[in-house]
Amino acid sequence: xxxxxxxxxxxxxxxxxxxxxxxxxxxxxxxxxxxxxxxxxxxxxxxxxxxxxxxxxxxxxxxxxxxxxxxxxxxxxxxxxxxxxxxxxxxxxxxxxxxxxxxxxxxxxxxxxxxxxxxxxxxxxxxxxxxxxxxxxxxxxxxxxxxxxxxxxxxxxxxxxxxxxxxxxxxxxxxxxxxxxxxxxxxxxxxxxxxxxxxxxxxxxxxxxxxxxxxxxxxxxxxxxxxxxxxxxxxxxxxxxxxxxxxxxxxxxxxxxxxxxxxxxxxxxxxxxxxxxxxxxxxxxxxxxxxxxxxxxxxxxxxxxxxxxxxxxxxxxxxxxxxxxxxxxxxxxxxxxxxxxxxxxxxxxxxxxxxxxxxxxxxxxxxxxxxxxxxxxxxxxxxxxxxxxxxxxxxxxxxxxxxxxxxxxxxxxxxxxxxxxxxxxxxxxxxxxxxxxxxxxxxxxxxxxxxxxxxxxxxxxxxxxxxxxxxxxxxxxxxxxxxxxxxxxxxxxxxxx
Length: 497
Fold this sequence. Notes:
Blueprint: E1 4-9, H1 12-27, E2 36-41, H2 49-61, E3 71-76, H3 104-116, E4 122-127, E5 132-134, E6 147-155, H4 156-159, E7 163-167, E8 178-186, H5 190-193, E9 202-212, H6 214-226, H7 235-245, E10 251-254, E11 259-261, H8 267-273, E12 280-286, E13 294-300, E14 313-314, E15 317-318, H9 319-325, E16 348-351, H10 369-372, H11 376-380, E17 383-384, H12 386-392, H13 395-417, E18 437-448, E19 451-461, E20 467-478, E21 484-492
Parallel strand pairs: 1-2, 1-3, 3-4, 6-10
Antiparallel strand pairs: 4-9, 5-11, 6-9, 7-8, 7-9, 8-10, 12-13, 13-16, 14-15, 16-17, 18-19, 19-20, 20-21
Protein backbone atom coordinates (compact mmCIF):
# COMPACT_ATOMS: atom_id res chain seq x y z
CA UNK A 1 0.00 0.00 0.00
CA UNK A 2 2.26 2.79 1.35
CA UNK A 3 6.02 2.68 1.55
CA UNK A 4 6.06 5.72 3.86
CA UNK A 5 3.66 7.36 6.32
CA UNK A 6 4.68 10.75 7.72
CA UNK A 7 2.93 12.67 10.51
CA UNK A 8 3.93 16.22 11.33
CA UNK A 9 3.62 17.52 14.89
CA UNK A 10 3.78 20.85 16.68
CA UNK A 11 6.61 19.93 19.05
CA UNK A 12 8.58 16.99 20.47
CA UNK A 13 6.05 16.33 23.25
CA UNK A 14 3.22 15.94 20.74
CA UNK A 15 5.48 13.89 18.47
CA UNK A 16 6.14 11.39 21.28
CA UNK A 17 2.41 10.91 21.81
CA UNK A 18 1.90 10.40 18.07
CA UNK A 19 4.69 7.79 18.08
CA UNK A 20 2.89 5.93 20.88
CA UNK A 21 -0.34 6.02 18.88
CA UNK A 22 1.39 4.61 15.79
CA UNK A 23 2.92 1.82 17.87
CA UNK A 24 -0.56 1.01 19.17
CA UNK A 25 -1.89 0.83 15.61
CA UNK A 26 0.99 -1.44 14.61
CA UNK A 27 0.16 -3.81 17.45
CA UNK A 28 -3.47 -3.75 16.39
CA UNK A 29 -2.34 -4.57 12.80
CA UNK A 30 -4.05 -1.44 11.46
CA UNK A 31 -0.77 -0.44 9.82
CA UNK A 32 1.07 -2.67 7.39
CA UNK A 33 4.16 -4.04 9.18
CA UNK A 34 6.30 -3.17 6.16
CA UNK A 35 5.44 0.54 6.07
CA UNK A 36 8.01 3.05 7.34
CA UNK A 37 6.59 5.66 9.68
CA UNK A 38 7.96 9.02 10.80
CA UNK A 39 6.69 11.68 13.17
CA UNK A 40 8.39 14.98 12.38
CA UNK A 41 7.92 17.89 14.84
CA UNK A 42 8.36 21.52 13.94
CA UNK A 43 11.94 22.46 14.87
CA UNK A 44 12.41 23.88 18.37
CA UNK A 45 8.65 24.17 18.81
CA UNK A 46 8.65 26.96 16.22
CA UNK A 47 5.51 27.08 14.09
CA UNK A 48 6.49 26.76 10.44
CA UNK A 49 3.13 26.23 8.72
CA UNK A 50 1.93 23.35 6.56
CA UNK A 51 4.34 24.25 3.74
CA UNK A 52 7.33 24.55 6.07
CA UNK A 53 6.32 21.28 7.74
CA UNK A 54 6.18 19.63 4.30
CA UNK A 55 9.71 20.78 3.42
CA UNK A 56 11.01 19.89 6.89
CA UNK A 57 9.50 16.39 6.66
CA UNK A 58 10.79 15.74 3.13
CA UNK A 59 14.31 16.93 4.04
CA UNK A 60 14.33 14.73 7.17
CA UNK A 61 12.84 11.58 5.67
CA UNK A 62 14.49 11.76 2.24
CA UNK A 63 17.91 13.43 2.69
CA UNK A 64 19.06 11.86 -0.60
CA UNK A 65 15.99 13.06 -2.48
CA UNK A 66 12.37 11.96 -2.84
CA UNK A 67 11.82 8.43 -4.12
CA UNK A 68 9.79 8.70 -7.32
CA UNK A 69 8.98 4.99 -7.31
CA UNK A 70 7.37 5.07 -3.87
CA UNK A 71 4.00 5.99 -2.41
CA UNK A 72 4.08 8.34 0.56
CA UNK A 73 1.22 9.49 2.79
CA UNK A 74 1.89 12.75 4.68
CA UNK A 75 -0.61 13.94 7.29
CA UNK A 76 -0.26 17.44 8.72
CA UNK A 77 -1.37 16.93 12.29
CA UNK A 78 0.33 19.67 14.28
CA UNK A 79 -1.31 22.72 15.81
CA UNK A 80 -2.55 23.75 19.24
CA UNK A 81 -6.24 23.11 18.45
CA UNK A 82 -7.12 26.31 20.27
CA UNK A 83 -10.74 26.22 19.10
CA UNK A 84 -11.19 22.66 20.36
CA UNK A 85 -9.02 22.42 23.51
CA UNK A 86 -10.12 18.97 24.70
CA UNK A 87 -8.41 17.54 21.60
CA UNK A 88 -5.27 19.62 21.95
CA UNK A 89 -3.51 17.16 24.26
CA UNK A 90 -3.60 14.13 21.96
CA UNK A 91 -3.97 16.06 18.72
CA UNK A 92 -7.08 16.30 16.56
CA UNK A 93 -5.79 13.54 14.32
CA UNK A 94 -6.27 10.98 17.12
CA UNK A 95 -9.62 12.32 18.32
CA UNK A 96 -12.19 9.60 18.88
CA UNK A 97 -14.99 9.03 16.40
CA UNK A 98 -18.37 7.34 17.06
CA UNK A 99 -17.11 3.94 15.92
CA UNK A 100 -15.63 2.07 18.89
CA UNK A 101 -11.88 2.43 19.19
CA UNK A 102 -11.77 4.43 15.95
CA UNK A 103 -9.91 7.70 15.54
CA UNK A 104 -9.72 10.45 12.93
CA UNK A 105 -6.36 9.01 11.83
CA UNK A 106 -7.86 5.61 11.14
CA UNK A 107 -10.70 7.18 9.19
CA UNK A 108 -8.34 9.25 7.03
CA UNK A 109 -5.90 6.34 6.63
CA UNK A 110 -8.66 3.97 5.56
CA UNK A 111 -10.10 6.31 2.92
CA UNK A 112 -6.79 7.55 1.50
CA UNK A 113 -5.47 4.00 1.33
CA UNK A 114 -8.33 3.21 -1.05
CA UNK A 115 -6.97 5.97 -3.27
CA UNK A 116 -3.35 4.98 -2.67
CA UNK A 117 -4.06 1.48 -4.00
CA UNK A 118 -4.75 3.02 -7.40
CA UNK A 119 -1.57 5.10 -7.56
CA UNK A 120 1.61 3.84 -9.15
CA UNK A 121 3.62 6.34 -7.09
CA UNK A 122 3.34 9.81 -5.62
CA UNK A 123 2.95 11.82 -2.44
CA UNK A 124 -0.50 12.24 -0.89
CA UNK A 125 -0.69 15.20 1.51
CA UNK A 126 -3.72 15.71 3.75
CA UNK A 127 -4.86 17.67 6.79
CA UNK A 128 -5.15 15.69 9.99
CA UNK A 129 -8.53 17.15 10.98
CA UNK A 130 -10.58 16.55 7.82
CA UNK A 131 -11.82 12.95 7.64
CA UNK A 132 -13.50 11.96 4.36
CA UNK A 133 -16.15 9.34 3.78
CA UNK A 134 -17.16 7.57 0.58
CA UNK A 135 -20.32 5.58 0.13
CA UNK A 136 -18.38 3.16 -2.07
CA UNK A 137 -14.92 2.55 -3.52
CA UNK A 138 -13.56 5.85 -4.90
CA UNK A 139 -12.18 5.58 -8.43
CA UNK A 140 -9.49 7.94 -9.64
CA UNK A 141 -10.76 9.44 -12.90
CA UNK A 142 -7.28 9.65 -14.38
CA UNK A 143 -3.64 9.62 -13.40
CA UNK A 144 -2.68 12.08 -16.12
CA UNK A 145 -2.00 15.02 -13.81
CA UNK A 146 0.78 16.65 -11.83
CA UNK A 147 -1.40 17.65 -8.89
CA UNK A 148 -4.87 16.38 -8.06
CA UNK A 149 -6.78 18.17 -5.32
CA UNK A 150 -9.85 16.42 -3.89
CA UNK A 151 -12.74 18.89 -3.83
CA UNK A 152 -16.28 18.91 -2.56
CA UNK A 153 -19.37 20.90 -3.56
CA UNK A 154 -20.50 23.17 -0.73
CA UNK A 155 -22.68 26.20 -0.07
CA UNK A 156 -21.18 29.66 -0.13
CA UNK A 157 -21.27 30.01 3.66
CA UNK A 158 -19.03 26.98 4.11
CA UNK A 159 -16.84 28.21 1.27
CA UNK A 160 -16.01 31.40 3.20
CA UNK A 161 -14.40 29.23 5.92
CA UNK A 162 -12.27 27.07 3.64
CA UNK A 163 -10.07 27.15 0.58
CA UNK A 164 -12.06 27.22 -2.67
CA UNK A 165 -10.97 26.06 -6.13
CA UNK A 166 -11.87 28.37 -9.00
CA UNK A 167 -12.30 26.70 -12.38
CA UNK A 168 -13.18 27.85 -15.86
CA UNK A 169 -16.86 28.78 -16.03
CA UNK A 170 -17.78 26.38 -18.88
CA UNK A 171 -16.40 23.49 -16.82
CA UNK A 172 -18.02 24.58 -13.59
CA UNK A 173 -20.79 22.04 -13.50
CA UNK A 174 -21.84 19.36 -11.06
CA UNK A 175 -22.02 16.86 -13.88
CA UNK A 176 -18.23 16.88 -14.22
CA UNK A 177 -15.93 15.23 -11.71
CA UNK A 178 -12.62 16.59 -13.00
CA UNK A 179 -11.94 20.32 -13.32
CA UNK A 180 -8.94 22.34 -14.47
CA UNK A 181 -8.01 24.64 -11.58
CA UNK A 182 -7.47 28.30 -12.47
CA UNK A 183 -6.99 29.69 -8.96
CA UNK A 184 -7.52 28.95 -5.28
CA UNK A 185 -8.96 31.30 -2.67
CA UNK A 186 -8.53 31.03 1.08
CA UNK A 187 -11.51 32.05 3.23
CA UNK A 188 -12.75 34.50 0.63
CA UNK A 189 -15.81 36.72 1.04
CA UNK A 190 -19.26 35.67 -0.14
CA UNK A 191 -19.28 38.41 -2.78
CA UNK A 192 -16.04 37.15 -4.27
CA UNK A 193 -17.17 33.52 -4.30
CA UNK A 194 -20.42 34.47 -6.02
CA UNK A 195 -18.37 35.47 -9.07
CA UNK A 196 -17.50 31.87 -9.86
CA UNK A 197 -20.09 29.71 -8.10
CA UNK A 198 -22.30 27.34 -10.11
CA UNK A 199 -26.02 27.75 -10.78
CA UNK A 200 -26.82 26.15 -7.42
CA UNK A 201 -24.81 28.85 -5.64
CA UNK A 202 -22.18 26.32 -4.66
CA UNK A 203 -18.40 26.27 -4.89
CA UNK A 204 -15.72 23.59 -4.88
CA UNK A 205 -14.01 23.65 -1.49
CA UNK A 206 -10.54 22.28 -0.94
CA UNK A 207 -10.74 19.23 1.40
CA UNK A 208 -7.03 19.50 2.19
CA UNK A 209 -6.10 16.36 0.22
CA UNK A 210 -3.47 16.85 -2.50
CA UNK A 211 -1.93 14.14 -4.69
CA UNK A 212 1.49 15.03 -6.12
CA UNK A 213 3.02 13.26 -9.13
CA UNK A 214 5.62 13.84 -11.80
CA UNK A 215 6.65 17.47 -12.29
CA UNK A 216 5.00 18.65 -9.06
CA UNK A 217 7.29 16.33 -7.06
CA UNK A 218 10.25 17.84 -8.92
CA UNK A 219 9.04 21.25 -7.80
CA UNK A 220 8.62 20.08 -4.19
CA UNK A 221 12.13 18.69 -4.31
CA UNK A 222 13.55 21.99 -5.58
CA UNK A 223 11.68 24.00 -2.95
CA UNK A 224 12.85 21.61 -0.23
CA UNK A 225 16.48 22.13 -1.22
CA UNK A 226 15.99 25.92 -1.20
CA UNK A 227 14.00 26.02 2.06
CA UNK A 228 15.44 28.00 4.93
CA UNK A 229 14.77 25.85 8.05
CA UNK A 230 12.44 27.49 10.53
CA UNK A 231 10.75 29.75 7.97
CA UNK A 232 6.95 29.86 8.04
CA UNK A 233 5.37 28.71 4.78
CA UNK A 234 1.70 27.91 4.22
CA UNK A 235 1.11 25.06 1.80
CA UNK A 236 -2.43 25.97 0.87
CA UNK A 237 -2.21 29.76 0.98
CA UNK A 238 1.29 30.32 -0.46
CA UNK A 239 2.46 27.29 -2.43
CA UNK A 240 -0.76 26.20 -4.14
CA UNK A 241 -1.20 29.55 -5.97
CA UNK A 242 2.38 29.25 -7.26
CA UNK A 243 1.80 25.68 -8.44
CA UNK A 244 -1.47 26.63 -10.15
CA UNK A 245 0.19 29.59 -11.89
CA UNK A 246 3.07 27.46 -13.22
CA UNK A 247 2.74 26.73 -16.97
CA UNK A 248 4.52 23.40 -16.39
CA UNK A 249 2.13 22.04 -13.73
CA UNK A 250 -1.20 20.43 -14.60
CA UNK A 251 -3.40 21.09 -11.54
CA UNK A 252 -6.86 19.55 -11.43
CA UNK A 253 -9.67 19.30 -8.89
CA UNK A 254 -11.40 15.94 -8.52
CA UNK A 255 -14.98 15.90 -7.19
CA UNK A 256 -15.67 12.29 -6.20
CA UNK A 257 -19.27 11.15 -6.16
CA UNK A 258 -20.86 10.38 -2.79
CA UNK A 259 -18.10 12.13 -0.87
CA UNK A 260 -18.78 13.35 2.66
CA UNK A 261 -16.44 16.00 3.99
CA UNK A 262 -16.03 16.99 7.63
CA UNK A 263 -13.82 19.56 9.29
CA UNK A 264 -13.44 19.48 13.10
CA UNK A 265 -12.49 23.11 13.39
CA UNK A 266 -14.49 23.91 16.52
CA UNK A 267 -15.89 22.05 19.50
CA UNK A 268 -19.42 22.57 18.16
CA UNK A 269 -18.48 21.13 14.74
CA UNK A 270 -16.86 18.10 16.36
CA UNK A 271 -19.82 17.45 18.67
CA UNK A 272 -22.27 17.81 15.78
CA UNK A 273 -20.21 15.32 13.75
CA UNK A 274 -20.27 12.68 16.48
CA UNK A 275 -23.94 13.40 17.31
CA UNK A 276 -23.12 14.66 20.79
CA UNK A 277 -25.71 17.03 22.27
CA UNK A 278 -23.62 18.10 25.27
CA UNK A 279 -23.38 21.82 25.90
CA UNK A 280 -20.52 21.77 28.38
CA UNK A 281 -17.04 20.35 28.00
CA UNK A 282 -15.25 19.16 31.13
CA UNK A 283 -11.96 17.28 31.30
CA UNK A 284 -9.10 16.83 33.78
CA UNK A 285 -5.48 17.23 32.77
CA UNK A 286 -2.64 15.69 34.84
CA UNK A 287 0.41 17.94 34.94
CA UNK A 288 4.04 16.94 34.60
CA UNK A 289 4.85 19.47 37.31
CA UNK A 290 4.19 19.84 40.16
CA UNK A 291 4.03 16.09 40.70
CA UNK A 292 0.56 14.57 41.21
CA UNK A 293 -1.13 17.87 40.33
CA UNK A 294 -3.93 18.34 37.84
CA UNK A 295 -6.26 20.94 36.41
CA UNK A 296 -9.91 20.66 35.48
CA UNK A 297 -10.85 22.63 32.37
CA UNK A 298 -14.46 23.38 31.54
CA UNK A 299 -16.19 25.61 29.02
CA UNK A 300 -19.22 25.83 26.74
CA UNK A 301 -19.17 24.10 23.34
CA UNK A 302 -19.73 27.48 21.65
CA UNK A 303 -16.89 29.25 23.47
CA UNK A 304 -14.07 30.00 21.03
CA UNK A 305 -10.79 30.23 22.97
CA UNK A 306 -9.17 32.13 20.07
CA UNK A 307 -11.63 35.04 20.22
CA UNK A 308 -10.04 38.08 21.82
CA UNK A 309 -11.10 41.01 23.98
CA UNK A 310 -14.85 41.77 23.86
CA UNK A 311 -15.52 38.64 21.78
CA UNK A 312 -13.94 36.32 24.36
CA UNK A 313 -16.59 34.30 26.21
CA UNK A 314 -16.79 31.88 29.12
CA UNK A 315 -19.86 29.63 29.22
CA UNK A 316 -21.44 31.89 26.62
CA UNK A 317 -20.96 35.07 28.65
CA UNK A 318 -18.46 37.82 27.90
CA UNK A 319 -15.42 37.29 30.10
CA UNK A 320 -15.26 41.04 30.70
CA UNK A 321 -18.90 41.00 31.86
CA UNK A 322 -18.17 38.07 34.17
CA UNK A 323 -15.22 39.98 35.67
CA UNK A 324 -17.36 43.09 36.24
CA UNK A 325 -20.17 41.13 37.90
CA UNK A 326 -17.70 39.50 40.28
CA UNK A 327 -15.70 42.70 40.92
CA UNK A 328 -12.43 41.37 39.51
CA UNK A 329 -10.02 43.20 37.25
CA UNK A 330 -8.85 41.95 33.87
CA UNK A 331 -5.29 41.78 35.19
CA UNK A 332 -6.36 39.16 37.75
CA UNK A 333 -6.62 36.60 34.92
CA UNK A 334 -4.49 38.30 32.26
CA UNK A 335 -1.50 39.64 34.25
CA UNK A 336 0.82 39.97 31.28
CA UNK A 337 -1.17 39.29 28.13
CA UNK A 338 -1.75 42.03 25.60
CA UNK A 339 -4.10 39.86 23.50
CA UNK A 340 -6.77 38.67 25.91
CA UNK A 341 -8.64 35.46 25.15
CA UNK A 342 -10.08 32.40 26.89
CA UNK A 343 -6.98 30.49 25.73
CA UNK A 344 -4.59 32.61 27.81
CA UNK A 345 -6.92 33.52 30.71
CA UNK A 346 -5.62 32.15 34.04
CA UNK A 347 -8.95 30.79 35.25
CA UNK A 348 -8.39 27.15 36.18
CA UNK A 349 -7.09 26.28 39.68
CA UNK A 350 -4.32 23.72 40.11
CA UNK A 351 -5.32 20.77 42.32
CA UNK A 352 -2.59 18.99 44.24
CA UNK A 353 -4.50 15.82 45.07
CA UNK A 354 -3.74 12.72 43.00
CA UNK A 355 -6.14 12.28 40.07
CA UNK A 356 -5.59 8.88 38.49
CA UNK A 357 -8.26 8.93 35.82
CA UNK A 358 -8.85 11.42 33.10
CA UNK A 359 -12.65 11.77 33.01
CA UNK A 360 -14.38 11.65 29.69
CA UNK A 361 -16.52 14.53 28.54
CA UNK A 362 -19.60 14.59 30.69
CA UNK A 363 -23.04 16.02 30.04
CA UNK A 364 -25.37 17.98 32.26
CA UNK A 365 -22.69 19.02 34.72
CA UNK A 366 -22.91 22.09 36.92
CA UNK A 367 -20.72 25.04 36.16
CA UNK A 368 -17.58 24.95 38.24
CA UNK A 369 -17.87 26.62 41.64
CA UNK A 370 -15.18 29.12 40.80
CA UNK A 371 -17.27 30.33 37.88
CA UNK A 372 -20.35 30.82 40.04
CA UNK A 373 -18.43 32.23 42.97
CA UNK A 374 -14.86 33.32 42.22
CA UNK A 375 -14.08 34.11 45.86
CA UNK A 376 -10.80 35.07 47.54
CA UNK A 377 -9.70 31.43 47.72
CA UNK A 378 -10.00 31.15 43.95
CA UNK A 379 -8.30 34.53 43.47
CA UNK A 380 -5.32 33.54 45.67
CA UNK A 381 -5.01 30.03 44.24
CA UNK A 382 -2.44 28.91 41.69
CA UNK A 383 -4.32 29.22 38.41
CA UNK A 384 -3.35 28.33 34.85
CA UNK A 385 -4.69 29.22 31.44
CA UNK A 386 -5.64 26.58 28.88
CA UNK A 387 -2.48 27.41 26.94
CA UNK A 388 -0.30 26.94 30.04
CA UNK A 389 -2.03 23.65 30.87
CA UNK A 390 -1.26 22.32 27.39
CA UNK A 391 2.44 23.10 27.85
CA UNK A 392 2.61 21.49 31.32
CA UNK A 393 0.38 18.48 30.59
CA UNK A 394 1.70 14.98 31.30
CA UNK A 395 0.93 13.65 27.82
CA UNK A 396 2.24 10.15 28.52
CA UNK A 397 -0.06 9.76 31.50
CA UNK A 398 -2.97 11.07 29.44
CA UNK A 399 -2.20 8.53 26.71
CA UNK A 400 -2.06 5.68 29.24
CA UNK A 401 -5.34 6.80 30.83
CA UNK A 402 -6.95 7.00 27.41
CA UNK A 403 -5.84 3.46 26.52
CA UNK A 404 -7.01 2.19 29.91
CA UNK A 405 -10.46 3.70 29.35
CA UNK A 406 -10.68 2.17 25.87
CA UNK A 407 -9.54 -1.24 27.13
CA UNK A 408 -12.10 -1.19 29.93
CA UNK A 409 -14.84 -0.17 27.49
CA UNK A 410 -13.85 -2.97 25.09
CA UNK A 411 -13.76 -5.53 27.92
CA UNK A 412 -17.18 -4.35 29.07
CA UNK A 413 -18.65 -4.75 25.58
CA UNK A 414 -17.21 -8.26 25.22
CA UNK A 415 -18.26 -9.32 28.72
CA UNK A 416 -21.76 -8.05 28.07
CA UNK A 417 -22.01 -10.27 24.98
CA UNK A 418 -20.80 -13.49 26.62
CA UNK A 419 -23.68 -15.91 26.96
CA UNK A 420 -26.04 -13.74 24.88
CA UNK A 421 -24.17 -13.73 21.56
CA UNK A 422 -23.42 -16.76 19.40
CA UNK A 423 -19.90 -15.42 18.82
CA UNK A 424 -19.24 -15.39 22.57
CA UNK A 425 -20.62 -18.60 24.06
CA UNK A 426 -20.91 -18.99 27.83
CA UNK A 427 -17.69 -20.26 29.44
CA UNK A 428 -18.79 -22.99 31.85
CA UNK A 429 -15.43 -22.90 33.61
CA UNK A 430 -12.73 -25.42 32.78
CA UNK A 431 -11.48 -25.56 36.33
CA UNK A 432 -14.97 -26.31 37.65
CA UNK A 433 -15.20 -29.67 35.89
CA UNK A 434 -14.90 -32.62 38.33
CA UNK A 435 -11.43 -33.78 37.22
CA UNK A 436 -10.10 -36.77 39.14
CA UNK A 437 -6.47 -36.77 37.95
CA UNK A 438 -3.85 -34.50 36.31
CA UNK A 439 -0.65 -35.73 34.60
CA UNK A 440 2.18 -33.33 33.67
CA UNK A 441 4.43 -33.77 30.63
CA UNK A 442 7.11 -31.06 30.88
CA UNK A 443 8.77 -30.29 27.56
CA UNK A 444 11.24 -27.80 29.01
CA UNK A 445 12.23 -26.32 32.37
CA UNK A 446 14.58 -23.34 32.61
CA UNK A 447 15.90 -21.80 35.85
CA UNK A 448 17.15 -18.19 36.17
CA UNK A 449 18.25 -17.36 39.77
CA UNK A 450 14.99 -17.46 41.75
CA UNK A 451 12.79 -17.71 38.61
CA UNK A 452 11.85 -20.92 36.79
CA UNK A 453 9.83 -21.40 33.62
CA UNK A 454 8.13 -24.59 32.49
CA UNK A 455 6.30 -25.48 29.29
CA UNK A 456 4.56 -28.62 28.17
CA UNK A 457 1.27 -30.49 28.16
CA UNK A 458 -0.89 -31.76 30.96
CA UNK A 459 -3.73 -34.24 30.77
CA UNK A 460 -6.95 -33.97 32.78
CA UNK A 461 -9.01 -37.09 33.46
CA UNK A 462 -12.75 -36.79 34.11
CA UNK A 463 -14.89 -39.28 36.11
CA UNK A 464 -15.66 -41.31 32.96
CA UNK A 465 -11.96 -41.83 32.23
CA UNK A 466 -11.83 -39.39 29.29
CA UNK A 467 -8.58 -37.40 29.04
CA UNK A 468 -8.30 -33.79 27.87
CA UNK A 469 -4.95 -32.50 26.62
CA UNK A 470 -4.04 -28.91 27.59
CA UNK A 471 -0.94 -26.86 26.69
CA UNK A 472 0.62 -24.90 29.55
CA UNK A 473 3.28 -22.31 30.35
CA UNK A 474 4.14 -21.63 34.02
CA UNK A 475 6.48 -19.14 35.68
CA UNK A 476 7.58 -19.97 39.24
CA UNK A 477 9.30 -17.75 41.78
CA UNK A 478 10.79 -18.59 45.16
CA UNK A 479 9.65 -16.19 47.91
CA UNK A 480 11.59 -15.05 51.01
CA UNK A 481 10.41 -18.12 52.93
CA UNK A 482 11.79 -20.40 50.24
CA UNK A 483 8.36 -21.41 48.98
CA UNK A 484 7.83 -21.82 45.24
CA UNK A 485 4.85 -19.82 43.96
CA UNK A 486 3.25 -19.60 40.52
CA UNK A 487 3.46 -15.94 39.44
CA UNK A 488 2.31 -16.33 35.81
CA UNK A 489 0.54 -19.08 33.93
CA UNK A 490 -1.20 -19.82 30.67
CA UNK A 491 -3.31 -22.82 29.69
CA UNK A 492 -5.17 -23.51 26.46
CA UNK A 493 -6.66 -26.35 24.47
CA UNK A 494 -4.42 -27.15 21.44
CA UNK A 495 -5.43 -25.31 18.28
CA UNK A 496 -7.74 -27.36 16.07
CA UNK A 497 -8.42 -25.67 12.71
